[in-house]
Structures are given as C-alpha cells and as structure tokens.
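Troubleshooting: if your tokenizer reports a length mismatch, compare your output against this known-good record of 342 residues.
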Amino acid sequence: MFTLQNFALLDLLIALIVVLGLGYVHRYRLPRPPVGRSTTSDVLIMSCLVVVMPVTYLAMPAPAVSAVFGVMFLVSLQLALGPLLGGRLATAAAVLLVAATAGAAIAGYDTVVLVLNAALIMIVVIGVTSLWTQTGMTAGHVAAFASALAVYDLFATGLGDMTDQFLAQVEGYPFAPLLAVTTGAVPVAAGLGDCLMLALWPMVATKAFGRTAGWIGAAVGVGLIIVVQVGFATGVLRSGMAFLTVLGPAILVQYLVWRRIHGAERRTSRWLGEPASVVDTSGRVDRLAAGLRTARTAADRPADTWVAVDDDAVIAEGPTPGTALRAARRAGYEGVPFIRQL
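Known-good structure output:
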C-alpha cells in the first residue's frame, strides 16, 4: 500500500544505506580480489551481465532463482562482515542470517522475511559498493555504468514488462532483490540495482572529487527517490517506474560538472592514503619477468595455468588466481606474490 509512512520508511532505509556506506568505505578495508583493480572492461562485462541475467532468471524456476540469490547474498555478507567480525565470525553470521531468512520463509512468517531481507540487502549493498570503490572503480566508470543501466531500465521497466515479470516470479520467495517495506504484488520497494547505484555514486564521488561531491551525490539520489514517490502519491507516475532512467542521467551530469571543476579524478591510492608509486630501482620487475619466462617454458604446465611468482621463482600455481594465492599461503609464503596467467 502506498502510504506516507511506508514511503518515509523506505527513504530512511535508503538514507541509512548511503550514510553507513560512506562511513564503512572510509573505515574498513576489504580484501582485494586476486584479479586486481576494476577496469573499463569490467564495467563493460557488468553492463552485459545486467542485460543477460534477468533473461536467464525468467527462464529458471522461481525456487532456483531464490537459491541463486541466497548464495550471492551469503558470499556478499561474508565479504561485508569480514572486516567487522573477522573471517570465521563473519561466515557464521552470514550463514545464520541466510538460514534464518530461509527458515522464516518456509514457516510462512512473511513479516520476518521482509525485515531480514531488508537487512540482507542493506549489508550486501554496502559491502559490494565498498569493494568496487576500493578496487579502483572510477567516477567515469560509474557514470558510464549508470548511463548503460538507464538505457536498460528504460526498455526493461519503462517500456517493457521484464521487470514486472521478474517481480511476479520472485513474489513470496526469500532473497528477492528488493529493499521492500511492504509485501504483496506491488510492494513499496527499491530494486537492488537502484540501491547499488544510490550507494555507489556518493562513495566514488567522494574518492574522486572530495566529500562535498559525495554528500551532494547522496542528497541528489535520495532527493530523486522522494520526487518519484511524490509522483506515485499524486498519480503522476505509475508503480514500477524505471528509476534508473532518472538516476543515471543525474549521475552523468554530476560527473561532468565535477570533472569540469576539479579536472582529473583523485587516484584510489591517494584517497586511501597509500604512498605514491615510484619507479622501481630494485630490479624486482626484471626478476619477476624472468620468473614468468621460466614458468612459460616449463613443459609440465598448461598454457592457462595461473602462477604466483616471487622475484625470479614460481612459488605456487593453480587453475585460478585464488587457488594460486592460496597455494602460496599453504607453502608458507607470507608476502604479496605477483599472480599472472601463463
């Protein structure tokens, strides 16, 4: 039901995500994936996945879709809670939250599922957007991604019914990708994609252009949500309005304005307070190159093997970057190896 109280509660939850996210990303460092920092190709891949995944979900049974999101939430929860609780406690807490949500759904406690699902969405959004921000996603990347999402949302939600079909499919199941404050076929809710972009832009804008840009980005995002809600309340807009068609251009305009004012973006290393990179005079780069050449000439290694190299020696290997890194840890290596695919 569209009421002032429900809209206000949704606004409060979204504002909490944005504010807590800004605090979290500054205070806690998430482990960087072995594949390194975000690049333009990563943004292109993400944009393609956004288009392909909903079509895939519609072809799957609803319980399977719920299970997929449950696993995604479990992994993301562990990631977000790790810096707060430590690895084992974070894993236990993530399993407990996911299991409680599934159990409440099986028992038919719809209100409990609603509350737990909202908590899951909030934690996951903060963790994922913090990871993207800390791994080098630039304001330009976010502006491009938001623009692509705006076009997609226009066709999937504004002009088409793909989003409506998906919402009907996951209705009544746990782990729905919705920050909802009511249940039913037409809940008062914000989609997971909306929440991700609302939280991501203020973080990246703060990193790239300073706190003023971040807080303005946060205010613009929450303000647009309120404007859209007023449209719902007055009957100007219909339910299921494609919010990213509004938020995407707003992010792009802010990016262009801040680039005009500040010029180049602040680098992630400078924002994190890391020392600026310097020219290597130790010869380590040459030794790493020699180690890679040796690894590539080994006859017993497949061409697609990932290797962990320290100086001129291969210390571990595996079929993926993560397995190579873990193999190096098991071998007793305590530093940060150079990981590369042959």
